[in-house]
Amino acid sequence: MSTEEKQLYTVSIYTENNIGLLNRISAIFQRRHINIESLNTSPSEIEGVSKFIIVVNVTEDSIKKIIGQIEKQVEVIKAYYHSLDEIIYQITGLFKIKSELLFEERQIQNIIKESNARIVTVNKEFFVLEKAGKKEEVVDLYNQLSQFGIMQYTRTGLIAVTKEEMKISSLLQTFNN
Amino acid sequence: MDTQTIKTAQKSTKATERISGSEAIVRCLIEEGVDIIYGYPGGAIMPVYDELYKYQDKIHHVLTRHEQGATHSAQGYARISGKVGVAMATSGPGATNLITGIADAQIDSTPMVCITGQVPSHLLGSDAFQETDIVGISTPVTKWNCQVTRAEDIPVAIAKAFYIAKSGRPGPVLVDITKDAQFNEFDFSYEKCTKVRSYNPVPKTDITKVEAAAQLINNAKKPLIVWGQGVILSEAEQQLKAVVEKGGIPAAWTILGASAIPTSHPLNVGMVGMHGNYAPNMLTNECDVLIAIGMRFDDRVTGSLNTYAKQAKVIHFEIDPAEIDKNVKTDVAVLGDAKTSLDMLLPILDKKEHKDWHQQFKDLYAIEYDKVIKDDIHPTKEGLTMGEVLKEINSQTKGEAAIVTDVGQHQMVACRYADFNVSKSNITSGGLGTMGFGLPAAIGAKMAAPEREVVSISGDGGYQMTIQELGTIFQQKAAVKVVVLNNDFLGMVRQWQQLFFDKRYASTEMVNPNFVAIAEGYYIKAKKVTKREELADAVAEMIASKEAYFLEVCVEKEDNVFPMIPSGASVSDIRLE
Hints:
Chain A contains six helices and nine strands. The model of chain A has no long low-confidence stretch (mean pLDDT about 90). In chain A, strands 5, 6, 7, 8 and 9 form a five-stranded antiparallel β-sheet that branches. Chain A has a four-stranded antiparallel β-sheet with strand order 2-3-1-4, covered by helices on one side. Chain A has about 180 residues and is an alpha+beta fold. Helices cover about 35% and strands about 40% of the residues of chain A. Chain B is about 40% helix and about 15% strand. In chain B, the strands form four sheets. In chain B, strands 3-2-4-5-7-6 form a six-stranded parallel β-sheet, with helices on both faces. In chain B, strands 11-10-9-12-13-14 form a six-stranded parallel β-sheet, with helices on both faces. In chain B, helix 2 packs across helix 3 and helix 17 (about 385-395) runs parallel beside helix 24 (about 530-545). The termini of chain B are far apart. With about 575 residues, chain B is α/β, with parallel strands linked by helices. At the A-B interface, helix 1 and helix 2 of A face strand 6 of B.
């Protein structure tokens, strides 16, 4: 793929756990008029080190410069970018649906079974379905269920681990010593 | 405050004493070697001012007339001394008034620490009186910033602020401190910060990259150096001169690189960029190896990137990895401190002369002299030119004065025609182009280097943006020489209107006040010059003055600055008229 063509990249950023850092990082995208497709922050494999995973649709030339700007931030330890074929990634969707539909619309039960979705909770009023997978799978389930009426629907940002070893692991180990 | 800094704070084993947060702030500044700060008091910073009152024998607080002035003075202080400039303000409007100076320091890599007061922590987010989210507002224009809400976190935050501001590629840092953190007492001890684990300010120079660079340079027939402020910031002036002389390499400079090598040096071939010299701009597109040192290929330097030095191999000596390939693709990137890297380059550099190549610069200079320079500095027309005023000031100060400029035509003229003999002699707002920078920056420069002659040169537009700082000059008895080149126009914008907007002079003509009377209102000696025959004597009187002096020079109203690379054009499309 040419460096001039836009594609989805995940940006993985290892950082100190700092209040203002999200603002600092999102400003880097905003300033260049780049829309953030999804954003997830969580603890990383190293205690005290946070990890951002941001998905953006940009050219490789652009993502390289953005990585430079991100790494320049004092409290950023390291940042990487990966195309989707270099990572294992998942998103999760939650669906809140009226409980009566579960019994009235037999088809729903088949959809749940076939999609490998999990029922998280059921009560008199509603039940909640959870579906983890590729974005397309979650969207597909949404499309199938929407004809019956969905009370609430939420999707997480993409989370990912790389196929190759992250070179940061050894660097981060030294932090804890 | 993040958990890491607090952990470090707890590790400190030094003897402690119980003091308030506000006293701790002042003690921290003293520990960092701060002797002058520029600021403006107000509600949320009053406890600190109370301590400054007690410690006034150790720290001199300069009351500027506006917080923006405080930042520019701190910048002027930093630029001439190489030390960290400090500005202080209260919350809300005091803090937001710092933003222009902070943005200026960020884009021009100036080490500055700003300390702002903030409303008490229990009022944060309540839209309290003079509350503003200054940490949020300043985030995009600071190298680092933080908010402190507990007294015991103050020493670590300030230590970190100074370390980050000064190390690597310098920049502005803001520490916002709530009023309760200023009032509360804690066990004070201070340790300077020497390391932040997530921050690598100076990449280690890779010798193989230096060797690759040396090989390109040694094989070059037409090498050209373009240096920037990085040379001054890393104090690599001697190293640069040695490289230039041994390699016989013509060297040009960006606006912020000016004065690192004396103007009179035979291999100093002038300024690059929009209003730079003809030869280095033209020959950027003819050199075979372009060696960029501590510069960032700003658009005002490169013009159109599609036609910038495409024929050349590009070597980039740079401390900030984010600058590599940002604008211009490099063939060899040498990351690291300029001084270290040039020291490594020098022994493996071949001694060369490149006489024919030098001649090309001389030939093009002759053309520029004939078409532009001659009439600028030895005009035959009646009206005074900015160029001749600059030449007069420059020759009477023997190229030893620090020239502090504002932004616009006079700034370009000053850079083009001032002969600089010593480094750190050109203090100006390069990247942000902040009108109003000059006067307050000159105050800071003069206070940091009282032994030097400091001449502030402004246009009539920018001067009036921070004219209130005459009050600071008066109160501080700062012996700044203030020159206004008055053409009754916002000259640079007018020039563009003439060239690109069919002379529609929209809102660029200025009806100006009696500048001499204003200066005299502040009890500053003042003179106005309108004729050529008065100029030399007036400048002599100004330079001879032991105190501040204001000189207004009325210059030709509609002069243009040439050469000029029209915005977005190629460097080799530079126009001489």
